[in-house]
Amino acid sequence: MEDALSFLWIQIVLEKTSALIKQIEETKEMEVHHHPHIPTHAKPWKEYLLEGLMIFIAVTLGYGAENIREHYVETKKALISAKNLYVDVTYDSIGYARNLINRSRQDSCFEIINTYYNNKTLDIETPAIYAAHGYISLRMLYQMNTLALDEVKNSGALKFLESDELKAAIQRYASLGTGLKLREQREFSYIDRMVDPISIKNFEFNFFRAAPTNFKIDSNKIVITIPIPANLKIMKQDQLDWDNYIAIIGMLQTIRQSTDKEYIAPTKAIVTGKQIGRAHV
Question: Is residue 108 pLDDT above 60, yes or no?
Fold first, then answer.
């Protein structure tokens, strides 16, 4: 009985499978013999013109939209760069203000030494000479922050800024920054060649190191605020030509004053005068 049922079940499956295969073959044959409908009449020329016009308008609008998007993106980048530059300029304004104060103090030190020289009292003002010479020989020239400035210049962001005044201020600021680097090289090179050899040869190291940061200027006189060694002296004083010494540090002050007038003061005027300011960005 079970064998008869199994045989009947197999026969039904075979019949169903055969019918399905036949149906698939008939469907394929119909697809092969089916032909798409191809219009035999030509389109009016107005339809071709309309289609061409629509394509032209679509391309033009797409191109215009892309240009607007690009301009918008680049303008935003330019504004971000300008704001970053404003932050750097704000810190620069503080740095240059402090720098000018310190450099002015160096000028005062030179004037005091020059007064001692003219009064022929250099030999009895040894502690003051230590402090003044040590302070004059310090390298004091503020380093401009150039990261945001270089970004503005190298990215072409200037052309996306609308303010001509802002563009001119940025270009002027960049030019002064380049000049300051050259002035720094000149000043520091002069100290290396002309001033440091005197410091090494004629000044006792320990007090020379301490004196420049431990004195004050009162009534055009240098007042030392730390204990002064009893045996403090100018080393190898018999080999030190005071005339030549004054000429050397005098030339250093001349170089510094030129840097202050031609570069630091104009740069400070730009950053404190808000020519590169929040109003533009």
Answer: yes
